[in-house]
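Sharing a chain and its predicted structure for anyone who wants a worked example. Both blocks are below, sequence first, tokens second.
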Amino acid sequence: MFSFSEKVYSFHQTPFRQEGILTVAKILMFMAVTLLAATSSIAGDYQYISAEDLMQKIQTNEQGLLLDIQVEAEYSLHHIPGAIATHAYPVKSEEDQAKLGAVLAQVNSNADPVVIVCPRGGGGAKRTYDYLRDQGVDEKRLMILEGGQAKWPY
């Protein structure tokens, strides 16, 4: 005779139950991978450089190309010496992107790092980063100045 506990134990061992658990596990795994991929592509993985680290690189002449996207009025008031002015901010229109396209040959002329300087290091810098990456610039070369020109204390 079977006891109640033996019947329950036997039910959990049926092929139908095991198949169901595997199916649920596969669905959960698929959903987790999909969510991770979507989050990564939406959020974007951007590389940043602090003002302190950039200043050290400038002092040792290892800063690479400083690409400043501030509008002309802001650039005139404050910019990092040696930065290339593109005046491409906010990098939302084809006209803004064309301003970046004008310096693309210079960006591609070597393998130096490219530091993107934006008014505050936010959306415009990310759009510049995305544009350059989409134009074939190696993402390993791209960095955004943390806090942008607004947080540049030097």
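Comments welcome. The radius of gyration is 26 Å.
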